[in-house]
Amino acid sequence: MSVEPFPDPGSPRALFGAEMRRLREAAQLSQAAVAARLGCTQTQVSRLEAATRTPSKSDAERLDRLFASAGGTHFANLYRRITVRPGGPIWFKGWTDEIEPNALVLRSWDPLLIPGLFQTESYARHIFAQEPQMAPERAEELVEARMRRRRVLDRATPPIVHVLIDAGVLRRKVGDPDVMREQLEYLLSASTIPHVSIQVVDPECLPGMAGPFMIAELPHGQPHTVHADSPVEGQITVAPDYVNSVQRRYEAIRLWAYPERISQRMIEDVKNEWI
């Protein structure tokens, strides 16, 4: 007898199931009631929600019609993320195309680099150029995609952005001193935007050593969504236990953060050291 593998809580298929369950419960519908509307069995609905069955395109289309208040293409977008190959920028489009542009609040922590949303073109180019077996033309594509992310800060109603950066990032050399001065100058400029808060974190903050992450607070009662990085592939999840754990870690890191004014002075001082 074959056994279904336990689903990865951060996989697109698990996100599809979690959203299906959330909207069904919000509408006070039973699995049997949803099954009747989808034209399938209750067992099939249960397996979709548990992420032990891969949804079809027609499943996504029927769910978008059933839960039209969620935007009309919500499940179609989730289905598209299931069908594309995992890993790399195509996978990350789930965050940059669907999560980040719609967020009300974005919270990030980075112990290693300037967060991607606030990187300059030169800084980003040096990072991508150092990737193993990275072709120059591919690096340029990634730089352009990173620069496009900035548009989220310019939209009519931009998200509130809270950024925490380890103090060591300011002195981690990426490129030459000119690149670092330009990057820190841009970071200072961004810190004056009314809806952006940038704080430097004391390097003795041990809770931050687990790695970088972002938390998105979304509209319309959608669950908070987390993106956590790894050397191979990031993870996007709405799994409550995972999200709550990351939120607690964020607050633990924030306790080690310097106030914004002091953080700005620290960034300015280090910028002047890059000569």
UniProtKB/TrEMBL annotation:
Residues 20-63 form the HTH cro/C1-type domain. One of its GO terms (molecular function) is DNA binding. Pfam families: DUF5753 (PF19054), HTH_31 (PF13560). This is Transcriptional regulator with XRE-family HTH domain. The lineage of its organism: Bacteria, Bacillati, Actinomycetota, Actinomycetes, Streptosporangiales.
